[in-house]
Amino acid sequence: TMPIPAVRLITSHLDDEEGPAGKIIRDGDGIDKAIIYELGSPIPLGAGKGHIKELEFHASTYGDIEDVIAVDMAIQQTLTMISTIAKPLGTSLSLLPSWAINSISVTDGVLISRDVLPRFLGSPDE
Q1: Which of 95, 107, 92 is nearest to 38 (CA)?
Q2: Residue 6 reports pLDDT greater than 70
């Protein structure tokens, strides 16, 4: 029931808050060699303390990723992976706190799900 010009205006702004795309800057399999992902939208630490710009994904044991494997949907697997093994580089944090996880942009979340997660879930090349 909405007029077409109004729909076009609204849909043209739907992706405004998604943020720029990040990228893998150190390729690895996540097991033998860590994967380092540079966030397209760095996460501010607050009070002039800088930003979280890079996340390192590294699982040294099956136990590190068993919670990721146990989840059904890819988006939930990605969130679980980020909360359990993503180490923010350049900070004193060993894992991301929930407020930082909630600050990851949609674009970065989708790219981590597409480019990083499958490396932990796929079978090794034969």
Answers
A1: 107
A2: yes
Residue among 33, 13, 35 at smallest CA distance from 24: 35
Give CA separation, 97 vs 17, 45, 83, 89, 101, in Å. 22, 11, 8, 13, 6
37-57 per-position pLDDT tens digit: 999 999 988 777 889 999 999
**What tokens appear for 46 in the block?**
């607050």
Going by C-beta distance under 8 Å and a sequence separation of 6 or more, which residues neighbour residue 69?
A: 77, 120, 121
The more confident residue out of 111 and 17 is: 111
Q: What angle (nearest 5°) sits at the alpha carbon of residue 110, between those of residues 43 and 7? A: 100
Q: What is the pTM of this model?
A: 0.79
